[in-house]
Automatic annotation (TrEMBL):
Protein name per its UniProtKB record: Dodecin domain-containing protein
Superkingdom of the source species: Bacteria
Database matches in InterPro entries: Dodecin (IPR009923), Dodecin-like (IPR025543), Dodecin-like_sf (IPR036694)
Record SUPFAM superfamilies: Dodecin-like (SSF89807)
């Protein structure tokens, strides 16, 4: 039997939402073992002078606990 835990994280990128997701998962995997998936809870953009300058995702990362 496996037991999983969920941790909420936020990640940003200057490129895209996809890049923010990739960066967030990569960073979470440095600290959390057995990352199995993520649910993208929210997406936000920051604008300056009418242009998107930053992409942000808030996600729930699921990882399986060690026995």
């Amino acid at each position: 039997m496996s037991v999983a835990k969920v941790s909420e994280i936020s990640a940003t990128s200057l490129k895209s939402f996809e890049d923010a997701i990739q960066l967030g998962i990569a960073r979470a995997s440095k600290t959390l073992r057995n990352v199995r998936g993520a649910w993208i809870k929210e997406q936000h953009v920051r604008c300056d002078s009418g242009k998107v300058v930053e992409y942000q995702v808030n996600m729930m990362v699921t990882f399986v606990l060690d026995d």
